[in-house]
């Protein structure tokens, strides 16, 4: 006889992604579907590896949603074991998880002030601390479920997982942490708390949460698995990406979203139908962007959330994107991607390469020594009064409600306040 369980993570109930209330409803629906599928699969128990809620202080609506959904496995006598994630743990004694536990809807694992002893929980004292763990018995077999809430990197500097968690027989370890090897696979950077080697040996299954992508690897005889978030988290978590290679779009299929059904400690992915996220990246001028994006548009489903990332050498009006993409949500991102002046030599004239304001500054400064470079930059950002060129540039920047990618525009707003008018006239005098 083997155990069969569902492994769900990063549900993020109550998350109004992009400030859209209907996204919270879609996150709720994904959780409900996952739980129903797990119950249909007749699992022995369900694991929720943290971030059930998007915030540590969920709204009454969100708490009600959690109660309604978690009542489904309760009616089928399927226990749910859970740990708190970084999004929904609390620094206070009681979190929303404790509330759900009081209602008999979940069994919380980890460090506690009081002992818990019942059909599904037992308490151990390790290194002077009480740790509540889960137990599940089936026939003459039993499995132990260890785990704890999300802990910061600072905690891991002072503590080792193996000091607190040792498998006694068949055991699962549930954690909400980033593992270095996985982070490197997906993101590069060094945002992690542990390495694979830090996971204590001997567990048959490491039920992970925190990183919203799916990842399965092995550790000794055990399996380390992240199911990923139930819904797509951002445009990096795309269903489909189109990348411009200079002459055409190269399609790249992303990964499906869902959770894991684990039998005999081997995970099987269960896909959920979630909101599609499409990600388009292009580096082109106005006419090429218009032509190529129009050509690509029929491939993007109406219900999609779409990001169009345009890298340009000089800004152009992108409002046409709203006409060609009739999607549910459109996110436009623009950024400057100018080639260096040296490489552009011969290929571009100065007037094509520099903005009117920059040309004006170059003309004024000439070959002058650039010790006063900072001041010149301020001048560029502040604009030149007698030149309406500056206004034109500002105008273009205003017309694009993008994710503040027009960096100079943003800096200009900030810097402008810092430069008193008197100073500016001094500058003009200095520039002659
Ligand atoms: Mn999360």
Per-chain topology:
Elements: E1 4-8, H1 21-40, E2 45-48, H2 60-75, E3 80-82, H3 96-102, E4 107-108, E5 110-112, E6 121-126, E7 129-138, E8 141-147, H4 153-158, H5 161-164, E9 171-176, H6 180-186, E10 205-209, E11 215-219, E12 222-226, E13 240-244, E14 249-253, E15 257-263, E16 266-272, E17 277-283, H7 286-296, E18 305-312, H8 320-324, E19 329-336, H9 341-344, H10 350-353, H11 356-365, H12 373-382, H13 389-399, H14 407-418, H15 421-431
Bound molecules: manganese (II) ion (MN).
The site of manganese (II) ion has 6 residues, from loops.
What features would you highlight for this structure?
432 residues; alpha/beta; Purple Acid Phosphatase, chain A, domain 2; 2 domains; eight-stranded mixed beta sheet; six-stranded mixed beta sheet; 25% strand; elongated; binds manganese (II) ion; DNA repair; endonuclease activity; 3'-5' exonuclease activity; Y-form DNA binding; Mre11_dom
The total tally of domains equals 2
State the secondary-structure class.
alpha/beta
CATH architecture grouping of the largest domain: 4-Layer Sandwich
CATH class identity of the largest domain: Alpha Beta
**CATH homologous superfamily of the largest domain - what is it?**
Metallo-dependent phosphatases
Main sheet, how many strands, which sense, barrel?
Answer: 8 strands, mixed
Number of strands: 19
Instruction: Pick out the low-confidence regions.
Output: 385-421
Q: In the CATH scheme, what's the topology name of the largest domain?
A: Purple Acid Phosphatase, chain A, domain 2
Please state the CA-atom Rg, rounded to the nearest Å. 28 Å
Q: Span from first to last CA? A: 89 Å
Shape: elongated
